[in-house]
Amino acid sequence: MVNNSWCNNASVVTLARSCSPNLELLAFKFRPFYLPREFTLVIINTVYIPPQANMDTALWELHEALTQLQAQHRDAALIVVGDFNSANLKRAVPNLYQHVTFPTRGNRSPDHCYTPYKDSYKALAHPPFGKSDHAAIFLLPKYKQRLKREALVQREVACWTDQSVDGLQDTLDEADWDMFRRSTDDVSEFTEAVVGFIGKLVDDTIPRTTIKKFPNQKPWVDKTIREAL
């Protein structure tokens, strides 16, 4: 069941389904109307591990399925929820965080929610649905977008245009290179002096500008893509 105000039904796609004596798994991908820029989509995995299951085998099967999904969708937000009984997914996938910290059935907590993002949810206990003997769990989002967690990076870059390159070429052609040859017989000193002089010419001739890099900006989004957008 998906809230229509969160995601269009047309963008809900089944990624994986499996049923064995040790593990029942359904994996779906969603493309919500709003999503932080660092994520391309959301993958929710619903899990049931029976109490009589071989827990090591169940965790191995789940680990294989999650690894494959993460390899195929590297920028997706991964969520794993369900009834794990006595299994602990962190044994198989240590980089996941468990967000349910209270008993959900008697004095036990078989119902888990895992994500790769620390403090992304605050779990609250609610009354069970119908005749269920498991507490309902309300997951209150606490995740902060990377744009709000990390600082904006500004750096200065050279603007290499045809006009500035032509100006630099004229300056290099007019330079007195014999002056450097007469100043020293040491090839290392000569190289250092010439490289330093060329660097100064570049600084004086090529205009520079300050660019901003936002923390949630994809590395492949360059000027040409921004102009096309």
Helix content range: 25-40%
**CA-atom Rg in angstroms:** 29 Å
Which whole number gives the mean pLDDT?
Answer: 90
Q: What's the CATH class of the largest domain, please?
A: Alpha Beta
Describe this structure in words.
The chain is an alpha+beta fold and 229 residues long. It is 29% helix and 26% strand. It folds into 2 domains: 9-144, Deoxyribonuclease I, Chain A (4-Layer Sandwich); 153-213, no CATH class. The strands form 3 sheets. The chain has a 6-stranded mixed β-sheet with strand order 1-2-3-4-6-5, with helices on one face. A two-stranded antiparallel sheet has the order 7-8. Helix 3 packs across helix 5.
Question: In short, what is this structure?
Answer:
This protein is an alpha+beta fold.
List keywords for this structure.
6 helices; 29% helix; Endo/exonu/phosph_ase_sf; Endonuclease/exonuclease/phosphatase domain-containing protein; 229 residues; Deoxyribonuclease I, Chain A; 2 domains; six-stranded mixed beta sheet; two-stranded antiparallel sheet; 10 strands
In terms of topology, how is this protein built?
Elements: E1 13-19, E2 24-30, E3 42-48, H1 55-72, E4 77-83, E5 97-98, E6 111-115, E7 121-126, E8 136-141, H2 146-149, E9 153-158, H3 162-174, H4 178-183, H5 187-205, E10 208-213, H6 223-228
Parallel strand pairs: 3-4
Antiparallel strand pairs: 1-2, 2-3, 4-6, 5-6, 7-8, 9-10
Helix pairs in contact: 3-5
Protein name: Endonuclease/exonuclease/phosphatase domain-containing protein
InterPro entries: Endo/exonu/phosph_ase_sf
